[in-house]
Amino acid sequence: MTTPATHRPRRADALSRERIVEAAIEILDRSGEQALTVRALTSHLSTGRGAIYYRVAGMDDLLAAAADEVIRAVTDRAAGDGDPDSALRSLSLGIFDAIDAHPWVGSQLAREPLQPAVLRIWKCIGVQLWELGVRGSATADAGGALANYIFGSAAQFAAGARRARNQAERRRYLDALATAWTEQDAGHIVREAAAELRDHDDRHQFLAGVDIFLSGIKARAK
Amino acid sequence: MTTPATHRPRRADALSRERIVEAAIEILDRSGEQALTVRALTSHLSTGRGAIYYRVAGMDDLLAAAADEVIRAVTDRAAGDGDPDSALRSLSLGIFDAIDAHPWVGSQLAREPLQPAVLRIWKCIGVQLWELGVRGSATADAGGALANYIFGSAAQFAAGARRARNQAERRRYLDALATAWTEQDAGHIVREAAAELRDHDDRHQFLAGVDIFLSGIKARAK
DNA sequence: ACCTGAACACCGTTCAAGT
DNA sequence: ACCTGAACACCGTTCAAGT
Hints:
10 helices, mainly alpha, 2 domains, Tetracycline Repressor, domain 2, homodimer, DNA-binding
């Protein structure tokens, strides 16, 4: 009865920052953002609550590390992709798809400008803009425009994807909204916009925005 | 000793949704986002915790209502502003300044696509795009591009403004980052971008982004 | 109809104690 | 060096009871 090997064995293999981040991603993917609690994480790793804090500064650090893990895969892939135009497009699409698969990344990207994942994206964009011939202060202007567009879209789509389980509810809401706008404003200006709002495809619209941005860069470069 | 008029008088004036939202804005402005708790709010209004839930669905509803209050002032002002180009520019600037004054609005805008403040901005943009001559599905594409750029920038600047009290820390961080990038990549491509990142002015860069999108929209309209 | 405040079911983080 | 888990100081929300 006093043998030290009991039903709850002390961890055989050592914990590591990587294992913790990996477990966090699993929980986030399976059950969403508000399911990632220290308690859920430590029980998933079958360890004590405090153990995490030995490897990770806190919840913010953990979330940032998890997002960086997902984003790194995207930026690494987009690195050597032919002409800068299509490299920027495929980087954008990669991020979009990553958020589609991991909605929590979308909210996380908008949360903190100096987190690793955000800086990674900035850097990736900066390199391609150079290839595009953008120089000097125009680099920060153009990079900020594209990056912030991506972050804004990411957050909005993430919220949509989070709610996608009951897509019927979303549909109902947008329908109601379109009706409300139509009744409020006599003009067909708003009515048309409301119809578009209801019927658009996220992915297609996201890419259209990237193209608008690229057109803008080139128009101003002349 | 049994008189009902004691040291804690039951509220003389009735609570109202407006009063609650107003109090929430005060707390958010003075002490930031994480200071807005039900406890802080009810003690500020000197009422019981549950009283709020009679007028407001919960914390999400309250935050959305507070943001809408701030944004409405901006969109109302931008409504009749000459040509659509400068109307869109002054709308954007109005939002930027509002976030500068109320950083919590920036984070809130990125949180939920179907909240009143977001829809208000969408609508405002949509009307101006029509004036610009944008029609059909291009409306949603262009509107989404500009709106999501604004939301993304809003969130990033909000985080910056939140941290602005110790601007020295931000400076130090960006310096360190620029150095790290410079050492990591031999090329001056990254070095230049890093320098720009450190020295840029938020407001100016934000406006440059708006112009890039406007240029893009016009280039594609032809 | 509207408000009160105790009760409930949670959080993240710290830290003395263990191995 | 690394882990454990109780303790601490909080949360948002509900709801029976009051006025």
